[in-house]
Amino acid sequence: MMKTKELDKTYVAHTYNRFPVEIVSGRGSVVTDDTGKEYIDMGAGIAVNIFGMNDAGWKQAVKAQLDKCQHTSNLYFTVPCAQLAQMLCEKTGMKKVFFSNSGAEANECAIKVARKYAAEKKGKDCYTILTLENSFHGRTLTTLAATGQDHYHEDFTPLTPGFVYAKPNDLHSVESLVAQNKVAGILFEAVQGEGGVNVLTKEFVQGLAKICEQNDILLMADEVQIGNGRSGALYGYMNDGVQPDVVSTAKGLGGGLPLGATLLGEKVRDVLQPGDHGSTFGGNPVCCAGALNILSRLDETMLAGVRDKSAFIVDSLTGMPGVESVTGMGLMLGVKTVKPAAEVVAACREMGVLVLTAKDKVRLLPALNIPLVLLQKAVHIISLACRN
Ligand SMILES: *Cc1c(COP(=O)(O)O)cnc(C)c1O
Question: Has residue 362 got a pLDDT over 90?
Fold first, then answer.
């Protein structure tokens, strides 16, 4: 029989350069590979396992729902779906929710909403979505078009038309594109994840909100990665004091099960009508039951813990030998290292810590409830790995 790694290399499409680790189990922020080696997990399945592996509360919520029913289709009502929509709206001030299964789909819905809203209000030729350079919004042909990084576009043209890209933290660049195009919506990540853990300034995000308000353009926050507590606020835009018209989220929302959500504000609450959009799996009761448990635990105490742990990591790594800078917010941090990031990642792995990269940085996305002792140990090992 082939070993897992050979089997995978033989039969799974080679779209991922996987790390040479086969994870078999985990508990909290510690994961175990097939040889029994343990690692402190500073990636949490790319910001998905918000409370780590095997979390008792989340697991109980998921199992209880599994014992009742696993899927119904969206032709029927279910309790978890309705209750999760209510909780999302009550915690954000948004009015309605469309559920899907991933971040890309959550953004697809946001883009459809912007197009329909603008078509009805301003005419069918108003469909352009403004996004930012270095953004990441997903891998479908439309969300790739939204993604402001050329190298993702290569080999897949023509992409969906109707996207323009402004420079992050440069309001003049946004203003001139808004003047030159009929813009329906502006889609932004409060902290750009895949693009290199770049924080948008508060002035810039507030400037975006103002431009949107003045021109009846939809302000749309992509909270797929920074959302659900990771920034130290429930959603990243909340740090900037703005109220978006549309919020998309996924990754951490389901706590490890696939779930995307597009939150619709007052202006667009009724834009989507029967037949306009849909998903077979979206709002799956098991995923929603898990998400209800996750979301109900993201209270002020949890968020304060995220901010404290963030400060600990930033203070510990800033100025260390081999560390050029630390960017990001909350528990979404990017470490610019003197050594190539891939070397640091490999050295960390050897020493029992799993970290990620984003562009040329080492990226840290630990579970929000990672115990301080584990975090201290992980940060110590990361600092050793950064040294020459
Ligand atoms: C990961 C990510 C996406 C895409 O999510 P998928 O679930 O992989 O489709 C979209 N936007 C942002 C900001 C992301 O980090």
Answer: yes
Question: 1 pLDDT band (50/70/90 cuts)?
Answer: low
4-55+299-387 fold = Aspartate Aminotransferase, domain 1 (3.90.1150)
Supply the pLDDT for residue 93. Answer: 98
* Beta strands 38-41; 353-354: pairing state: parallel
- The helix/strand/coil state of 198 is strand
Q: Is 104 in the pocket of ligand 1 (CB under 6 A)?
A: yes
How many Å lie between the centroid of ligand 1 and the Cα of residue 138? 5
Cα separation, 84 vs 91, in Å, equals: 11
Atom number, ligand 1, closest to the C-alpha of residue 225: 15
d(C-alpha 329, C-alpha 201), whole Å: 11
- Give me the residues paired with residue 262 across strands: 98, 248
354-358: long-range pairs with CB below 8 Å, 24+: 354/19, 354/21, 354/31, 354/39, 354/40, 354/41, 354/42, 354/43, 355/42, 355/43, 355/382, 356/42, 356/43, 356/46, 358/193, 358/194, 358/195, 358/196, 358/197, 358/334
| Tokens read off for 170 | 């440069």
CATH code of domain 58-296: 3.40.640.10
Amino acid identity for residue 18 in this structure: R
Residue 225 CB less than 6 A away from ligand 1? yes
Q: Note the pLDDT tens digit of each residue in 81-122.
A: 999 999 999 999 999 999 999 999 999 999 999 999 999 999
pLDDT(170) > 90? yes
Q: On the CB side of 265, how many CA atoms lie within 13 Å of its CA?
A: 16
Q: What is the mean pLDDT of the chain?
A: 98
Mean pLDDT on 262-289: 98
The residue whose CB lies within 8 Å of the most ligand 1 atoms, and thus the one to mutate among 101, 105, 194, 230, is 194
Question: Can you tell me the distance from the alpha carbon of 376 to that of 221, in angstroms, rounded to the nearest whole number?
Answer: 32
Q: Which sequence spans correspond to the domains of the chain?
A: 4-55+299-387, 58-296
**117: helix, strand or coil:** helix
pLDDT of residue 388: 75
